[in-house]
Write a structure and sequence with these properties.
single chain, mainly beta, 3-stranded antiparallel beta sheet, 11% helix
């Protein structure tokens, strides 16, 4: 009887090796607007880029660029036009004029349809010091690096942190936070990882963001972290871009403007 069970298991496992492609109901291709305007402290902020792509089917491996669009950002007085670079879907300007707390409007005209979004350029506080330590998790020693900052008092602040380390991470590490419990106090953004080794370079990019963008990313990260074979199918997370020509053909993506600081630390 045991041999019979073994044969059945082998047959079932062997049948699992076949690749099955499921026919999926796919909607029409939509525009994806990646409009992140980052003003790095210490720079004039004039050179900025916006990336436009199109959605593709589930089994497609390449993301096609959205070519030939008209792209503009306006502050109500001055219009800043973006020109496409070599049919890449990347649109660039070298004339942008960033100003903290100023509201800007994005206009993208693509395939005869006009897409709009409005956002305000948010400030960010400085990183004041960096400290390295070690933590022991059940016998495994991990390196921790804290980047300290002082949150401005008497105002609501929202932040996006991006950690980059080519030696330790395959992908950049992103997190969002708010100052609900740290308003006016010193706090830190930290990265802790057992793969961080002596000589590795860890870079923090720290952005000031709006409450709406914080909530957008929070939902997006939650869907990514909760993924798995038995997870609920993800729903589209709506950005702040609209389609003025055909509202039902809403684009994906977000228009966001941030002041940003960048700090680099070498692991000791």
């Amino acid at each position: 009887m045991k041999n019979l069970y073994a044969i059945i298991i082998l047959l079932v496992c062997a049948s699992c090796e076949d690749v099955i492609e499921v026919d999926l109901n796919e909607g029409p291709s939509r525009l994806v607007i990646d409009a992140n305007i980052n003003w790095k402290k210490g720079s004039d902020g004039k050179k900025q880029q916006i990336r436009l792509t199109k959605t593709v089917g589930f089994y497609e491996s390449l993301t096609p660029p959205a070519n030939g669009a008209e792209v503009m950002i306006s502050d109500g007085t001055t219009d800043f036009y973006f020109e496409e670079i070599d049919m890449t879907g990347i649109y660039e300007t070298e004339t942008f004029e960033p100003e903290i707390d100023k509201t800007y409007t994005l206009t993208v005209i693509y395939n005869g349809e006009t897409h709009n979004a409005t956002a305000t350029l948010k400030p960010v506080t400085d990183i004041t010091k960096i400290e390295q330590s070690e933590e022991n998790f059940f016998g495994t020693v991990a390196t921790r690096v804290d980047f300290f900052y002082t949150d401005p008092a008497e105002e609501e602040n929202y932040y996006l942190s991006e950690f980059v380390s080519p030696e330790a991470f395959l992908l950049n590490q992103y997190r969002v936070r708010r100052d609900e419990f740290t308003n006016g106090n010193e706090s830190s953004i930290f990265e802790i990882d057992e793969n961080l080794s002596k000589g590795d370079v860890l870079t923090l990019r720290f952005y000031g963001i709006s409450e709406s963008y914080h909530n957008y990313l929070d939902l997006l990260f939650e869907q990514v972290q909760n993924g798995g074979p038995f997870a609920t199918a993800p729903a589209a997370v709506n950005g702040n871009c609209t389609n003025a020509t055909r509202p039902e053909n809403k684009p994906y993506g977000y228009f966001r403007l941030s002041e940003m600081v960048e700090e680099t630390y070498t692991i000791e």
